[in-house]
Amino acid sequence: MPDPRRAEGKRHQLSVVLGIATGATLCDMRGYKAIAAWAKDLKSRARECFGCRRENKKYVVPSESIIRDVLVRVDPVKLNLALQQWNATFATEDQSLAIDGKTMRNAVDEAGRQTHIMSVVGHETTLCITRKKSARYP
Asked: Is the Cβ–Cβ distance between 74 and 3 less than 8 Å?
């Protein structure tokens, strides 16, 4: 999928920004500020899994302004085609995948953050391809 941003000054790959925005949205984050806060709360391992770049031995997540800039500029038709291609590549035994996120009602960690879970399940195989857990402040 083509990156709608100018070549100069790109600090984060398009796939990283879109992946983080998707994960945050599936965990019920609404708006650029909430998505950026969700990204900021990601632990080092999650940041690495999303493909965040390293700076001074730490993985750096995109800022709110970068997230907003990418989401405003991305072509929804091209994004849909890219997602269809991803689905065809990674879900070879399934015609489609179900992606679902939930907020766990009474699951609060020691810092007072609510737990959110996200999972991807194949329709035909009914296999859980992946699941992730995150937490945010109420």
From this structure: no
Q: Domain residues of the chain, as ranges?
A: 14-136
Look at the pTM and tell me if it is higher than 0.85.
no
Terminal alpha carbon distance of the chain: 35
Q: By three-state DSSP, how is residue 129 classified?
A: strand
Residue 99 in tokens: 């992606």
pLDDT tens per residue, range 2-60: 888 888 778 899 999 999 998 898 888 889 999 999 999 999 988 998 999 999 999 99
User: Minimal CA–CA distance to 57: which of 44, 67, 68?
Assistant: 44
